[in-house]
Amino acid sequence: QIVEGGVPVVSHQVQYSLLDERPRGAMAEYCAAQGIGLLCYGTVAGGFLSNAWLGREAPVELGNRSLTKYRLIIDEFGGWDMFQQLLELLQRVALRHGADIASVATRLVLDRPGVAAAIVGATNTAHWTTRCVTSLRSAPGDAAPRARCTRWSVTAKARTGAS
User: Fold this and answer.
1) pLDDT number for residue 1
2) pTM
3) For the chain, which has fewer Cβ within 10 Å, the N-terminal or C-terminal residue?
C-alpha cells in the first residue's frame, strides 16, 4: 500500500539467510519490479553460520533471545543434522577461497536476486580478522555447492548420499 500510495521506497529490511529464505520468491520479485533493494540482516544467523559451529553438538542452552530465534530457524530448516551438512558444504567452498563459513554464507545471500546489501554485525573485533566478504567472489566451481545450499537440496543430498 505504501508503494502504491506513491511513497518512494528504496530498500526493504528483511531477515534473509541460507537457513531462512522467506524473502525469496514473491517478496524479492515484487521488490525488484518496484526497484526496491533488499537490505538483509541475519545472513549468518547470529553466528550459527560460522566455523565455530561446524562439527559441534546442538546447544542445550543459548545466551540470548536472538540465538534462541536462530536456533528455531535451524529447526525449521530441517534440524541440527541437516544444518551440519550445510556447514560442511559451506566449509568446502570457504577452503577453496581462503575464506570462512560466515563470509561464504553472506556472499551467497548477497548474490541472490534483489539483494542490495547485508547488515553484518560483530560482537567483538575478532570477527573482523577474517577475509572481507566484499573481496570474496563466486568462481565457476562454486555453482554446484551454491545450488546445494538450500533446505531442499541438502535434503536431497542426505537422501541420495550425493556430495
Assistant:
1) 81
2) 0.79
3) N
